[in-house]
Design brief:
The chain is mainly β and 821 residues long. Helices cover 11% and strands 40% of the residues. The strands form 18 sheets. It has a 5-stranded mixed sheet with strand order 1-28-31-32-26, with no helix packed on it. A 4-stranded mixed sheet has the order 2-8-7-4. Its main location: membrane.
Length: 821
């Protein structure tokens, strides 16, 4: 907790402080103006702008204004000239009463930067009041036995003016018995007294008429008069007398009402009514004293009847009159001086002059955000004030005398703390000490200092092909800790090209909520993965932005039926497959080869011999290879021309199928023909380059397929942990082959034969599982061949289904032998 102690400085420190004020933004006591009371409204007191070194054209931008309510009540500032003018007629007597000096403090505040200037305007007295007596006529009873030089106090005249304009002298009309003597008290007031110069004789002159005139010192002088009638009385020749002419008593200002201050005693040597003394306030006792104190007329006890306040008056003088019951009555006089001692009964005051609220979060340290003063009406140690600021706030206080500024101590961050409660605690040096707390609620305003941030480093979206346009792909989400427009986010897609078309023709994003939609129908066979760069920016000035990549994976659907590659039907009547009647059981008649443009399990094919065939019991079609073989030895009674209807079905849901009709001719002569060598290697010798190309192409296809499946599997495994975080970021992992399967597998080429049918196998063989193979078959009875890079053969039941996509590629090989896969 920062603590600043404020002590009442000696005159040396006041001189030093005057120089420090110049460099700290304060001007205190440097400019002093004076103006005569009763001046007209609009009277120029002084030019503030010129005296403060400000240019007139700067005044609107600096927001020159008066900083306190008291200043605004009496004065105003003209921004067109910088002059300080009177805003209402000033009455010095009303503002300052009878004070010797009437000085008004004026605070002037400017901004950019925030500064406070203190001015002093002295209100000069104008002799606009004449002296006046409480009454216009006074009766004074004086015993004829009064001794020469006896004194008789008279009521003073009152003049609200001060200085030379107040009562300066008294004059008594000429007479034969009395003279005038004027006494001056410590505070400068004049009290007239009649002095008996010649003994009175009631029988000679029972009554005298005198005129007392009070004259002030103004120019021109003003005066007031009172008529005094002196009645000469007979008898009582002893007046009451006090043992002392002046009494002094000291009391604390918190003395309770009713407390006894002093018991006065006046003695009278006369007897009977002439010696009975009564007490009363003298004519010079002010109305304030009569309200604060009571005097018992019989006992002479002086008690407190009102609240005493050291800050209003340090002492009070009570004029006491004691008179007897004689005729005429005799009286004596004394003065009771009551000195008030200060107690700590006034708490410190914290007066806020100006405050910058809210405070921008980019405000640098040591920037002034508030100006305030402190004061304590007590004196001595009771008026010494120390100021503290609440801890754990990025603000501090800087002080000079009673003037303070609130400055930023550290850098501000609205995102961590948007509001501070700052307490300024002022404590005086009394015992017990009094404390005052000023609580400030400072709001921190936002600046655009935080860019948007996506919740994930990247997003994956999975979409089935043949989707309708407008389908929701996923939702990207970003956050911005700023406030207001600085946190209002707008999403967009960065420009780019995909397959020669702008990426905006593929996807669209909602700029408000980050929903990503498909603009078209996707085809897995044309596009498998679409990376989209999504940008987000806030609405600050200048705007900040961020980017993220969304990977859209197009998933295959079973939308392509199998395509028969062999046997081909270039004409309406396909060429028959010739089989010798001597062929044994299991004889390979032909091999049906088909492909499916789909991927994954949608491209797994199975072969079935339909019962609509001529003799389904004579032939058998392999479920996975499509090989057509005899089930038994042929007989002469078998139909010579057999129609085999083979159905090829994929593994989709629902499955799609294609049928092909194979004509098989049972001939005796076909046996020799079928044993004629139609060796693939022989053809390869004639065209060695074609064989090399075949091997390279198959190896390349296998490598691309392996790499694609490995990348997809790795991405899915890496994002499995975030599958539940976002509905659009889950990976399709069900029944996927492990990465080890592809990592420890390698493609191999193998030439196989089965009777007269020769074919090549491309095998992807791991060390501990079943093989996946690509087969190319050469069948007799063909006059040309089409070579095609194919999808993997359907795996056995023990091999898990792979969800990775194998990219198809096709080519054509012309050769006397028929080529099928």
């Amino acid at each position: 907790m920062e603590r600043v102690s404020l002590q009442r400085p000696a005159w040396k420190w006041q001189v030093l402080s005057l120089f420090l004020l110049c460099g700290w933004g304060w001007v205190s006591g440097q400019i002093h103006y004076s103006v005569v009371e009763e001046s007209e409204v609009g009277t120029v007191v002084g030019n503030v702008a010129r005296d403060l070194g400000l240019k007139v054209e700067e005044l609107p931008g600096r927001r020159l204004r008066l900083g306190s309510e008291e200043s605004l009540r009496h004065f105003a500032v003209r921004l067109d000239s910088g002059a300080l003018v009177v805003s209402q007629q000033l009455d010095r007597e009303r503002l300052c009463g009878a004070a010797a000096s009437c000085v008004l403090s004026v605070q002037v505040v400017t901004e950019n930067p925030l500064q406070l200037f203190r001015l002093e305007v002295e209100i000069l007295d104008l002799n606009d009041n004449s002296p006046s007596f409480p009454t216009t006529h006074r009766t004074l009873r004086v015993a004829e036995s009064a001794t020469v030089a006896a004194r008789f106090p008279l009521e003073s005249a009152q003049d609200p003016d001060v200085g030379t304009n107040t009562v300066g002298s008294y004059w008594l009309s000429p007479n034969s018995h009395f003279s005038l003597d004027v006494k001056q008290q410590q505070d400068g007031k004049l009290f007239p007294e009649l002095v008996l110069e010649r003994a009175l004789d009631r029988e000679e002159q029972p009554e005298l008429q005198l005129v007392l005139t009070a004259v002030d010192g103004g120019s021109p002088a003003r005066s007031g008069t009172v008529q005094i009638t002196v009645l000469v009385l007979d008898v009582n020749d002893n007046a009451p007398t006090f043992d002392r002419a002046t009494y002094k008593v000291q009391v604390p200002e918190n003395t309770p009402v009713g407390a006894l201050l002093l018991r006065l005693n006046a003695s009278d040597p006369d007897e009977g009514p002439n010696g009975e003394t009564q007490y009363s306030f003298g004519v010079h006792t002010s109305d304030l004293v009569r309200r604060l104190f009571t005097l018992d007329p019989h006992s002479g006890e002086v008690r407190v009847s009102g609240a005493l306040d050291f800050e209003e008056s340090h002492f009070y003088e009570i004029y006491v009159r004691a008179h007897d019951g004689g005729v005429p009555e005799m009286e004596g006089h004394c003065v009771l001086r009551v000195e008030v001692e200060d107690t700590n009964d006034n708490p410190p005051e914290v007066l806020l002059t100006s405050l910058l609220n809210p405070v921008p979060e980019d405000t640098p340290p040591e920037t002034v955000v508030g100006l305030f003063n402190i004061r304590d009406r007590d004196s001595g140690a009771n008026g010494d004030v120390s100021l503290e600021i609440s801890p754990d706030v990025p603000f501090a206080i800087r002080s000079l005398q009673n003037h303070f500024s609130l400055v930023t101590r550290d850098s501000l961050d609205r995102e961590s703390t948007s509001q501070y409660i700052v307490e300024l605690i002022a404590q005086d040096g009394g015992s017990p000490a009094l404390t005052t707390t000023l609580t400030l609620l400072l709001n921190i305003s936002d600046v655009n200092d935080n860019p948007p941030h996506f919740l994930q480093p990247s997003y994956d979206a999975f979409l089935l092909e043949n989707n309708p346009p407008g389908s929701l792909l996923c939702t990207v989400s970003a956050s911005d800790p700023d406030d207001g427009d600085n946190s209002r986010l707008v999403y967009s897609i960065e420009s780019g090209q995909v397959q020669g078309a702008p990426i905006s023709s593929f996807v669209h994003i909602n700029p408000d909520n980050g929903n990503l939609y498909a603009q078209r129908t996707f085809d897995f066979e044309l596009l498998q993965v679409l990376p989209v760069s999504v940008a987000v920016r806030d609405s600050g000035s200048p705007p900040l932005h961020a980017n993220v990549t969304v990977y859209i994976f197009v998933l295959d659907q079973n939308d392509h039926p199998p395509t028969i590659l062999h046997p081909t039907s270039d004409s309406d009547i396909p060429a028959p497959q010739r089989v010798p009647l001597s062929a044994p059981a299991g004889y390979l008649v032909t091999k049906v080869t088909a492909v499916d443009a789909d991927a994954g399990h949608n491209a797994w094919l199975s072969y079935h011999l339909l019962p609509q065939s001529t003799d389904p019991s004579l032939f058998h079609v392999s479920l996975y290879t499509g090989e057509v073989r005899t089930t038994r030895a042929l007989r002469d009674t078998d139909v010579a021309t057999q129609q085999l209807i083979v159905q090829v079905t994929d593994n989709g849901d629902p499955p799609l199928s294609t049928t092909v009709t194979i004509t098989v001719a049972l001939e005796e002569a076909a046996l020799e023909e079928s044993y004629k060598p139609r060796d693939f290697l022989a053809g390869a010798k004639e065209k060695p380059d074609l064989t090399l190309y075949l091997i390279i192409a198959l190896a390349a296809v296998s490598t691309v397929a392996l790499a694609t499946v490995t990348v997809l599997a790795a991405r899915c495994l890496r994002r499995r942990g975030r599958a539940a975080a976002s509905p659009c970021c889950c990976c399709w992992l069900s029944e996927s082959p492990s990465r080890d399967f592809f990592k420890h597998s390698s493609p191999k080429l193998q030439l196989s034969s089965d009777g007269t049918l020769k074919y090549m196998e491309v095998t992807l063989r791991p060390t501990d599982s079943q093989s996946q193979c690509y087969s190319t078959c050469f069948s007799p009875g063909s006059d040309r061949s089409d070579f095609t890079f194919l999808r993997p053969c359907p795996p056995p039941a023990t091999l898990p289904r792979a969800t990775g996509a194998f990219l198809p590629a096709t080519g054509t090989l012309r050769d006397p032998g028929q080529v099928r896969a």
